[in-house]
């Protein structure tokens, strides 16, 4: 178990780095677009569509990390009122529900990917190939689902690293 | 109505188990699509894909990156240290800067959430460090963000004007005074809570003379470079608002290296950390989109409005009903999509009973702004909760925003009694 | 909710993106009302305007065929290019010099669209004419020649025009609908390709008061489509009512399109709010534009795959 947790944490670090690279690329292309507008009189046609795709990929690359490291925004008033053992149990239930989402949304995005491939869909303006970007969604759901399962079964010590539940 | 049972059940499970709110909203929407709409769950992916791949949304994460870079390079620290003495004598102190800077930012940015992201990511960490009560800081930032939509340019007034064929120039002029009025009301309120002597603002801090306080602002002139990159480039037509967000990131990096303590490693960490912040916000966006898609494909908002229309009410009662309608739906929908969905009925009904079309644009903008501050789908709250790293929880943020929520509603009342506050400028200049 | 006077046997939801005040929406409204009235209890069509069902035109090929969510829609086929890339080159704006031609080539266009719709499980009920006939160059300063336009920053709505104007030595960029007003106000762009008939709805004359005619608003005609499953489930009598109503909507909207009536009405608004309609671009400039557009069309179609090329051959012959 310990080594699974250690490896999953490394993988999460890798994904967090990927999301950051996507974010940097996104910033770069937005800046490039305004520089081109100023100097050449027109931005590259592809920048807007590429930025939208980078944005989407960035969120889904970050989703498994967010799930594993518990960085999601949530309302935890009810669990916080419970005794420690009960709270841990509710946490595991919550992660089971997150896993259900990941499976359900994962299947839907997988189907969306297949349609995208079948239609050879491309972005409307600059004809960027879409399926490699669409493929990020089901992959992200798969990894997020694994992260949720891991948190569901992980030993209690591992769950100690809870993030802040309010500063006041 | 099975829909309402699914929504109630979904919210209950989300609150009791503490699952991520975005995923709770998403599951609720997917359940409606599956059970009520007839197996149409694939619409969930369509809705998310269509909005996420849209260019304009990217301004929000870019502003968050900018704020984080300014923070780690110490630039925002210097900014607030220099600003601080000038505000020491005023009750509420630096909290006023949240409103004032948001209003200034609103004069170039057309969106509410980007305004909250831009100002929030710079201001929150500094004010928290200086001992301001976190939830109050978040409340003022969420409220300040709403000025982004009211003070021109404004995305909601643009879309209102384009879809209802009302002069956009007149709408922009009409939004200006009400926006400033609300900014002043918010600052008065901050002064009020600041003077009550509760531990909302820190006690310490040297008080210096005005001249000295102004001289302390001189050394931070390099920040003018950043302000130009964001505000000046939009104003001069060199960049669109989204591009200005990108230029803000670039300028904060340049400034951080030349003037602050930015290092390549810190820069990398800033991106890694702030992406995670934004991902948590993006997940809520995802859930809100799916739930909104599920409700709108059923045509529910139009049904409710047709019902209001059929009651033949007096003008004021129509306004009250429409306001309640926006306040309730504002809990579930993002403001712009809500407006697009409802205007086909709200506009003819309201102008039919005699309300001015330009005035109505301002009122609807304020009403959908209130929705930005109400859970479960209040994007300003989520952006700020995300920026605080969940240190201020969603409910604390909502509670701290409640007074501003009431101020905005009061603004609607004032504008109803004195419509010329909105209409004076457009009438005299057109 | 839903306590309307009566519930018909079959109810259709119909999606369009236009807001109710627009002529396009009114044409579709006319269709929906005529069917609802003539079909009696057999079929009601409820029109959801402004995209209020929350779905996008681009997804219609995927959503409509099932027939249990939305049963009918009106759309601009140019929005389907993500799934049907060849539509980007089917009838790009500017290649036709006369608006009347659009009505004449409807049979050829019908074949092209039906290829797509039949495959997807959608029935093409008919066409709807555009709301406006004329396209203008709208500027902050008086511009009515290609010479003046060089050196200005021009906003266009699609990539095709970026390429066409590049051929003419004018640098053009795509600016989104929502950004246009502010972009024009602050000077991100100096001019925009925009029909006056549509410009007055977005108050563009407030920031770009000078307009000059350049080419007719001829592009994909609007489609009126229904789910094949939903259509086949109707009785033959009701099917006939639907087809007749579609034909009526097509006839009326094309008559309105070719009359230029909406353009005239918009022109009054345009002038009343300070707009200045300059002389049209010279005949040479107009010809140069059409020539550049046709060259661009041919180049893009030859690189756009088999479907694009055969559509190009059919249509370029038809418009001669
Ligand atoms: Na604004
Ligand atoms: Na809300």
| Low-confidence regions of chain B | none
**Share of helix of chain C, binned:** 40-55%
Largest interface: A-B, 63 and 72 residues
Provide the number of structural domains of chain B. Answer: 1
Quaternary structure classification = heterotrimer
Report the span from N to C terminus of chain C: 55 Å
Cofactors, ions and other ligands in the entry? sodium ion
Helical/strand content category of chain C: alpha/beta
Mean pLDDT over the full residue set of chain C: 92
- The global form of chain C is globular
Please tally the β strands of chain B and state the result.
Answer: 0
Shape of chain B: globular
Average pLDDT for all residues of chain B: 86
- Coarse structural class of chain B: mainly alpha
Subunit structure (chain B): The complex comprises the extracytoplasmic solute receptor protein and the two transmembrane proteins.
Keywords (chain B): Cell inner membrane, Cell membrane, Membrane, Transmembrane, Transmembrane helix, Transport
Family (chain B): Belongs to the TRAP transporter large permease family.
Transmembrane segments (chain B): 28-52, 59-79, 99-124, 136-160, 172-195, 216-238, 244-265, 277-304, 316-346, 358-384, 404-425
List the keywords.
heterotrimer, A: 168 residues, mainly alpha, 6 helices, 74% helix, 0% strand, disordered C terminus, C: 320 residues, alpha/beta, six-stranded mixed β-sheet, five-stranded mixed β-sheet, 13 helices, 11 strands, globular, disordered N terminus, binds sodium ion, TRAP_DctQ (chain A), DctQ (chain A), transmembrane helix (chain A)
Quick recap:
The complex is a heterotrimer of chains A (168), B (430) and C (320). Chain A is an all-alpha fold. Chain A is 74% helix and 0% strand.
Strand and helix map with partners:
The complex is a heterotrimer of chains A (168), B (430) and C (320).
Chain A (H helix, E strand, L loop, with lengths): L1 H38 L5 H24 L8 H5 L2 H36 L11 H4 L1 H18 L15
Helix pairs in contact in A: 1-2, 2-6, 4-6
Chain B lengths: L1 H16 L3 H15 L6 H11 L6 H14 L2 H13 L7 H12 L5 H18 L4 H17 L4 H10 L3 H28 L14 H6 L7 H13 L5 H18 L5 H34 L2 H10 L5 H15 L5 H18 L4 H16 L6 H9 L6 H24 L2 H10 L1
Helix pairs in contact in B: 1-2, 2-14, 3-14, 4-7, 4-13, 4-14, 6-7, 6-8, 6-10, 7-8, 7-19, 8-10, 8-18, 8-19, 8-20, 9-10, 9-17, 10-18, 10-20, 10-21, 12-13, 14-19, 15-16, 15-17, 16-17, 16-18, 17-18, 18-20, 19-20
Chain C lengths: L9 E6 L7 H16 L4 E6 L11 H4 L8 E4 L24 H5 L1 H15 L1 E7 L5 E6 L6 H4 L4 E3 L2 H9 L4 E3 L2 H10 L4 E4 L1 H4 L10 E7 L5 E6 H5 L3 H24 L1 H12 L3 E2 L5 H20 L2 H14 L2
Parallel strand pairs in C: 1-2, 1-3, 6-7, 6-8, 9-11
Antiparallel strand pairs in C: 3-10, 4-10, 5-8, 5-9
Helix pairs in contact in C: 1-10, 6-12, 12-13
The structure holds sodium ion (NA) (2 copies).
Organism (chain B): Lutibaculum baratangense AMV1
Subcellular location (chain B): Cell inner membrane
Keywords (chain B): Cell inner membrane, Cell membrane, Membrane, Transmembrane, Transmembrane helix, Transport
């Amino acid at each position: 178990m310990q080594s699974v947790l250690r490896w999953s944490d490394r993988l999460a670090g890798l994904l967090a780095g990927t999301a950051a690279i996507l974010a940097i690329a996104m910033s770069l292309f937005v800046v490039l677009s305004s520089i081109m507008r100023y100097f050449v009189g027109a931005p590259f046609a592809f920048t807007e569509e590429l930025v939208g795709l980078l944005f989407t990929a960035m969120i889904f690359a970050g989703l498994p990390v967010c799930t594993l490291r518990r960085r999601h925004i949530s309302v935890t008033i009810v669990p916080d009122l419970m005794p420690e053992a009960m709270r841990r149990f509710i946490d595991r239930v919550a992660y089971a529900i997150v896993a259900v989402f990941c499976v359900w949304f994962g299947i839907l995005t997988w189907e969306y990917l297949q349609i995208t491939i079948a239609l050879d869909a491309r972005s409307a303006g600059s004809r960027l190939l879409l399926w490699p970007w669409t493929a990020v969604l089901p992959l992200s759901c798969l990894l997020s689902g694994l992260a949720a399962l891991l948190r569901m079964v992980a030993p209690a010590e591992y769950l100690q690293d809870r993030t802040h539940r309010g500063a006041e | 109505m099975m829909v309402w049972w699914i929504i109630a059940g979904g919210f209950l499970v989300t609150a009791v188990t503490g699952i991520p709110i975005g995923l709770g909203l998403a599951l609720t929407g997917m359940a409606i699509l599956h059970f009520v709409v007839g197996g149409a769950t694939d619409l969930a992916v369509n809705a998310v894909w269509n909005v996420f791949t849209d260019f304009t949304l990217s301004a929000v994460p870019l502003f968050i990156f900018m704020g984080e870079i300014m923070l780690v390079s110490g630039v925002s620290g210097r900014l607030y240290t220099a600003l601080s003495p000038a505000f020491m004598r005023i009750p509420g102190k630096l909290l006023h800067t949240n409103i004032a800077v948001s209003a200034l930012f609103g004069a170039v940015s057309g969106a509410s959430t980007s305004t909250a992201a831009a100002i929030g990511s710079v201001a929150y960490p500094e004010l928290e460090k200086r001992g301001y009560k976190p939830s109050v800081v978040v409340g003022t930032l969420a409220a300040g963000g709403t000025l982004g939509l009211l003070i021109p340019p404004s995305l909601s007034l643009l879309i209102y004007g384009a879809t209802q064929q009302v002069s956009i120039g007149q709408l922009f002029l009409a939004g200006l005074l009400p926006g400033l009025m609300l900014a002043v009301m918010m600052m008065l309120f901050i002064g009020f809570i600041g003077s009550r002597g509760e531990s909302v603002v820190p006690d310490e801090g040297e008080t210096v003379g005005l001249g000295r306080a102004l001289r302390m602002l001189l050394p931070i002139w390099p920040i003018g470079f950043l302000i130009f990159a964001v505000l000046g480039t939009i104003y001069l037509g060199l960049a669109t608002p989204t591009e200005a967000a990108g230029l803000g990131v670039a300028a904060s990096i340049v400034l951080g290296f030349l003037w602050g303590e930015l290092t390549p490693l810190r820069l990398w960490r800033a991106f890694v950390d702030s992406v995670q912040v934004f991902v948590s916000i993006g997940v809520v966006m995802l859930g809100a989109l799916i739930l909104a898609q599920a409700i709108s494909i059923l045509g529910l908002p139009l049904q409710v409005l047709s019902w209001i229309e059929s009651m033949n009410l007096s003008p004021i009662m129509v306004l009250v009903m429409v306001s309640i309608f926006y306040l309730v739906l504002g809990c579930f929908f993002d403001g712009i999509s809500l407006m697009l969905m409802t205007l086909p009925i709200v506009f003819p009904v309201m102008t039919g009973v005699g309300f001015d079309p330009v005035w109505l644009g301002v009122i609807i903008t304020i009403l959908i702004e209130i929705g930005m501050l109400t859970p479960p789908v209040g994007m300003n709250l989520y952006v700020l909760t995300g920026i605080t790293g969940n240190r201020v929880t969603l409910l604390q943020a909502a509670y701290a925003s409640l007074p501003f929520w009431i101020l905005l509603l009061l603004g609607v009342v004032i504008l109803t009694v004195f419509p010329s506050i909105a209409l004076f400028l457009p009438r005299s200049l057109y | 909710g839903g306590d309307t006077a009566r519930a018909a046997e079959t109810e259709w939801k119909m999606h369009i993106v236009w807001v109710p005040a627009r002529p396009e929406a009114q044409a579709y409204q006319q269709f929906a009302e005529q069917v609802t009235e003539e079909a009696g209890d057999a079929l009601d069509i409820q029109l959801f305007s402004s995209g209020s069902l929350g779905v996008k035109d681009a997804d219609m090929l995927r959503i409509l065929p099932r027939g249990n969510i939305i049963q009918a829609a009106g759309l601009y086929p140019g929005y389907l290019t993500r799934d049907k890339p060849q539509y980007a080159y089917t009838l790009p704006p500017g290649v036709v010099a006369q608006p009347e031609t659009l009505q004449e080539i409807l049979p050829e266009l019908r074949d092209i669209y039906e290829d797509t719709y039949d495959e997807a499980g959608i029935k093409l009920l008919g066409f709807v004419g555009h709301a406006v006939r004329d396209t203008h160059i709208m500027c902050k300063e008086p511009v009515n020649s290609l010479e003046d336009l060089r050196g200005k920053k021009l906003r266009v709505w699609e990539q095709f025009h970026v390429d066409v104007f590049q051929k003419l030595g004018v640098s053009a960029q795509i600016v989104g609908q929502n950004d246009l007003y502010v972009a024009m106000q602050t000077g991100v762009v100096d001019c925009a390709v925009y029909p006056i008939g549509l410009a007055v709805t977005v108050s563009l004359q407030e920031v770009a008061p000078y307009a000059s005619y350049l080419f007719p608003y001829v592009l994909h005609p609007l489609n009126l489509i229904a789910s094949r499953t939903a259509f086949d489930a109707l009785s033959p009598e009701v099917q006939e009512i639907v087809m007749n109503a579609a034909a009526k909507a097509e006839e009326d909207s094309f008559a309105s399109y070719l009359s230029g009536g909406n353009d005239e009405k918009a022109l009054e608004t345009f002038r009343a709010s300070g707009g200045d309609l300059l002389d049209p671009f010279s005949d040479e400039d107009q010809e140069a534009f059409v020539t550049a557009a046709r060259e661009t069309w041919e180049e893009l179609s030859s690189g756009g795959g088999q479907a694009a090329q055969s559509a190009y051959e059919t249509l370029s012959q038809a418009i001669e």
